[in-house]
Amino acid sequence: MAETTVSPKDRFLTVYGRKPVLEALDDPELRVDKVILADTARGPAAAEIQRAAKAAGVPVQRASAHRVKVLAGNGKQDQGVLADVVAPRMRPLSAALADAPARVLLLDGITTPANVGMILRTATAAGLGGIVVPRRGVAALDPLVVKASAGVAFRAPVLRCATAAEAASMLVEAGYGLYALGAQGGPSLFEASLPERAAFVLGGETAGVSDEVAELVTGWLSIPMPGEVESLNVSAAAAVLCFELVRRGTTR
């Protein structure tokens, strides 16, 4: 079923902590929707954030320290402040399917923020039409992901949905071939024939592609590795995949 309302989580990336919030406010290329400051935040640090927000024309809301922790999702590092940064290319997967991007990635169980951030950076650089980042089962789009992406996460074509299994079902129903990268078996990525529209599943660091998604996979692809190494880190595998699509001229 198509989503009828857009969640704030599908419009903004939330950054927390004094330094990340100040960096977002000072970046002329970013649009900050609002800053939320804990009512317990006082002193020079809070004043600096308020000055930066005023200079950027960004409203500052006060909330309880508990509320800030809940919204940040990280009670140990929020430092009593967070900011919602507009991610202009982030939208629900259901909305993106109406435009039918030719090539998309689907992240399935990737829980290391550094891997998610590097995949977002690589896929955006390669010009892919979308990167599906489910809200559950994948590392949250937080400052660690933003840092690993070197800030590209704000501009990445992120597509949101509840779970990887839901995304896989939606993609198959929309006519996409669903291909999973695996360490063993399957034709070479460099030689496989791909349909006009294809989605590529990148499985988690330890468990790989989930059973629910594997049931819907059209086929498995492998990356040839003549050396004595069993597999690549998932972000390295994503880079190989993305730039093979660039070589083919079929990223979008």
UniProtKB/TrEMBL annotation:
InterPro entries noted in UniProt: Alpha/beta_knot_MTases, Ribosomal_eL30-like_sf, rRNA_MeTrfase_TrmH, SpoU_MeTrfase, SpoU_subst-bd, tRNA_m1G_MTases_N
One Pfam family from the record: SpoU_sub_bind
Source domain of life: Bacteria
Signal peptide (UniProt feature, chain positions): none
Keyword line: Methyltransferase, Transferase
Family annotation (SMART domains): SpoU_sub_bind
GO BP of this protein: methylation
Residue intervals of the RNA 2-O ribose methyltransferase substrate binding domain: 14-91
GO MF term list: methyltransferase activity
Family indicated by similarity: Belongs to the class IV-like SAM-binding methyltransferase superfamily. RNA methyltransferase TrmH family.
Protein name per its UniProtKB record: RNA methyltransferase
Source species: Amycolatopsis deserti
